[in-house]
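User: Show me an example of a complex going from sequences to structure tokens.

Assistant: Sure. Here are the input components:
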Amino acid sequence: MNKTLVVCSGGLDSVTLAHHIAHQSTQQQAQKQAQELMGLLTFNYGQRHRKEIDCAIACAQRLNVPHHLIDISTLGQSLQSALTSHDEAIPEGHYAADNMASTVVPNRNAIMLTIAFGFADSIGATQVAIAVHGGDHFIYPDCRPEFIEAFATMQQYALGKTPAITLFAPYLTINKGDIAAIAGELSVPIHETWSCYNGGDIHCGRCGTCVERLEAVHHAGITDQTTYADTTFWHQATQKNQPLADQ
Amino acid sequence: MNKTLVVCSGGLDSVTLAHHIAHQSTQQQAQKQAQELMGLLTFNYGQRHRKEIDCAIACAQRLNVPHHLIDISTLGQSLQSALTSHDEAIPEGHYAADNMASTVVPNRNAIMLTIAFGFADSIGATQVAIAVHGGDHFIYPDCRPEFIEAFATMQQYALGKTPAITLFAPYLTINKGDIAAIAGELSVPIHETWSCYNGGDIHCGRCGTCVERLEAVHHAGITDQTTYADTTFWHQATQKNQPLADQ
């Protein structure tokens, strides 16, 4: 039986993953092959706002599982990053644009995953699930398949447990548009997920993650009740780059 | 040129490592093969006292390099451990005894190392050095050679840099007695390092790390100006287990 802890930021991808595993769990229980969604784990790493975290908490409530919050915000002060620095301007535009590289926190996924594995071990989980996807590969080295595989191997040795706690990354070879399609199939309330890097009351529609989200929703052809401050910018940004659907 | 960041707890092993690299650096500079000790990195993970951290700061001052402190104490609240819990009694005796397993923080080395690599990347270091040693292997899975190797591989992928930031663990195949001997050769002031798990004003001489330290000093046959509350218990504890020198 897999007891799965989902690393959930409160964004579209990880909220969909949590719903996905909860759905599979229900399906499998009906078939008497028990699987358990043990809970969601969110990191407070010094985000500009709490909306993303609140969306993760809301997701756990919807799925009736515990939500765990681990504060690593002091690390953000030590690791240089436009993402966690409130002084730097957020780059606008498509993720593919060079200026988005400044949003990378050095070693972010490796840091969060090692903590997630330590936490999983503490609560008796047997699997950690993350929502890294194919669209992240070209800008974030710590979202690529070779990293995921090497990380899982490292963790086998680090905890020295048999069986090892496994790393489940089912979206590794699909893109955000495909994830949005899964969200549609599972009726995930995507307007209750948060993607925007800016700290406004509504999604700005212009930052890298907003553009990527709007592309994904368009690609999946699903209904999106999210309110965006700018609903047309994403299309211009996409024109300047490879649209996600064609990657 | 290697620019090395040493992960330094303030204990005997990592302080010796810092002195060791600083010494090699000086030697190599004389030979015009530049190597640089960039600084020391210490984690505040909710230790029972600050003495260990103060010893790391003192080491950096002696070696005239920057000292960096990263606070991960909130993680300690999330990850079960006798080491970071102020409510549990510290086990006495030799590291080999079963009761010492409760001092293992789940995934501790992997967590600290991923943060160290992120920090190294931020400051432009090309190497992270740690003082894990052969004596740690049998109780801590995340001190074993196969972990160190897998971790270094994972980091190559995680940061995606060429050349990769390397992991230097020169004490991996020697024991603490051998490290104490190196400390003796380099005239490291070992009474200015801290090993005791208890929060007293002086080393207790009875906890696992005190016993291990006293064994190591005895094995190396070096002068130790450290004051211990109990100077005989370590020998009884060693009799019950394999002495370090015979491992």
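The lines above are the inputs; the final block is the predicted structure for all two components together. Chain B touches chain A at residues 68, 70-72, 74-75, 78-80, 105-111, 113-115, 117-119, 121-122, 141-142, 144, 146-147, 150-151, 153-160 (CB under 8 Å).
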